[in-house]
Amino acid sequence: MNSSKSPGLAGFGILKNTTCHTEKKISVFFSIIFMTVGILSNSLAIVILMKAYQRFRQKSKASFLLLASGLVVTDLFGHLINGAIAVFVYASDKDWIRFNQSNILCSVFGICMVFFGLCPLFLGSVMAVERCIGVTKPIFHSTKMTSRHVKMMLTMVCLFAVLIALLPILRFRAYQIQASRTWCFYKTEHVEDWEDRFYLLLFSCLGFLALAISFLCNAVTGITLLRVKFKSQQRQGRSHHFEMIIQLLAIMCVSCICWSPFLVI
């Protein structure tokens, strides 16, 4: 009786191991594909933006291009760092106990997820504000929005995102491995402590605030440009504004589609 069951059990075990191995290869493959596509597309965007910045260095478009470059560079490093960690986790069979005994990797992964999640949203909203000022207050924009001021804004946005990402570490709160065991983030399951809830609400509120600012500023910019276009049929000097607002709307739509469900949950 035992001998009759052994071949079936052995076959089931072989099939299970083969299936797990195949799933692991597929997960690693897709992680590498997504990371590679993100890196290549952002690298191409950086080259295009740098060439455009050299052409428009002394014009009103320069500040927008500088902010767009910051956004693309941030997204590039997000794909590179988070993607590399995700590939390593999948390749290691998600065995966090083996490679994360001191919780260092999970903490780094969590910090990167928060930083590279919030920073592009912040930069997108700053770009929308910059265009809104450029269209509604062109004189103020041309005199006050210099490259030095834009670089200061970029630095402040990045530092603020770093601060938010480091808050749990500064408060001696560890980032948690999530249910799928493929990434780390704030504690999202069985949240009872007020501080854990605060981090989640802070992340969501800041993300929604950035999206709301982008929506409001893009709406004001678009309405202003349409009014100017209908009042005077002169398109010269305004075409690049329409080009930039279309780019901003595309960034905002992608951000809303990608982030809104996660921020709500």
UniProtKB/TrEMBL annotation:
The cross-references to Pfam families, in alphabetical order and at most eight, read: 7tm_1
Q: Tell me what topology the record assigns in the membrane.
A: Multi-pass membrane protein
Every copy of the G-protein coupled receptors family 1 profile domain together lies at 41-265
**TM helices/strands, residue ranges:** 26-50, 62-90, 102-129, 150-170, 198-223, 244-264
Which keywords does UniProt give here?
Answer: Cell membrane, Disulfide bond, G-protein coupled receptor, Glycoprotein, Membrane, Receptor, Transducer, Transmembrane, Transmembrane helix
Q: What would you give as a GO molecular function for this chain, any one?
A: prostaglandin F receptor activity
**Cellular compartments per GO CC:** plasma membrane
Q: Which InterPro entries match?
A: GPCR_Rhodpsn, GPCR_Rhodpsn_7TM, PglndnF_rcpt, Prostanoid_rcpt
PANTHER family with a match to the protein in the record: G-PROTEIN COUPLED RECEPTOR FAMILY 1 MEMBER, PROSTAGLANDIN F2-ALPHA RECEPTOR
Q: Where in the cell is it found?
A: Cell membrane
Highest rank taxon of the organism: Eukaryota
Which species is listed as the source? Lonchura striata (white-rumped munia)
| Name of the featured protein | Prostaglandin F2-alpha receptor
Any one of the GO BP annotations: response to lipid
Name the lineage.
Answer: Eukaryota, Metazoa, Chordata, Craniata, Vertebrata
